[in-house]
Design brief:
CATH topology: Cyclic Phosphodiesterase, Chain: A
Radius of gyration: 16 Å
Order of helices and strands: EHEHEEHEHEEE
Number of domains: 1
Helix content: 25-40%
Strand content: 25-35%
CATH architecture: Alpha-Beta Complex
Amino acid sequence: MVQSLELILDDALDESVRREWQMLLDADLPSQGRHTGSSNRPHITLSVAEEFDRLDARLESDTIESAFPVRLGALIVFRGRSMTLARSVVVSERLLELHSRVSELAQDAHGYRSHTRPGRWTPHVTIARRLTHTELFDAIRCLDSTPVDLDGTTSGLRRWDGERKIEWLVGEGRHQNR
């Protein structure tokens, strides 16, 4: 099972993404909105590994500023066994600095995923997974009326432990089962 470190979004930006999830649900298309667990929220994944035990201690002793302006941009598609539709995250100096720092802290984690390393990472917020070609076309058409860019701020760092199904905000030290 994987663990991740994620940037979460301010309430207004979170709600904007959830509206897009709902538009796809209303059109009976795949959507992240189908996952009804309380831990399912729009986020920007910074790092993924099989375990982050040392990262947690490092994050607690490091001061990482995780609130800054962010812009979600154009829709992008990730291809694989099926397709994923996402909002790109417009890269800023602040975002790259944070990602670089997190990558330094996480690079020796067991099972560290190379696609989250600097130079290989594509910042995004997932809108829908496991789309067929037809569903992808329909989803893009469905979201055509949404704003091209969504502006807001990031509001914190979240740790997700997929094996134990718990999440917590970095720096708050509380773990919540989901």
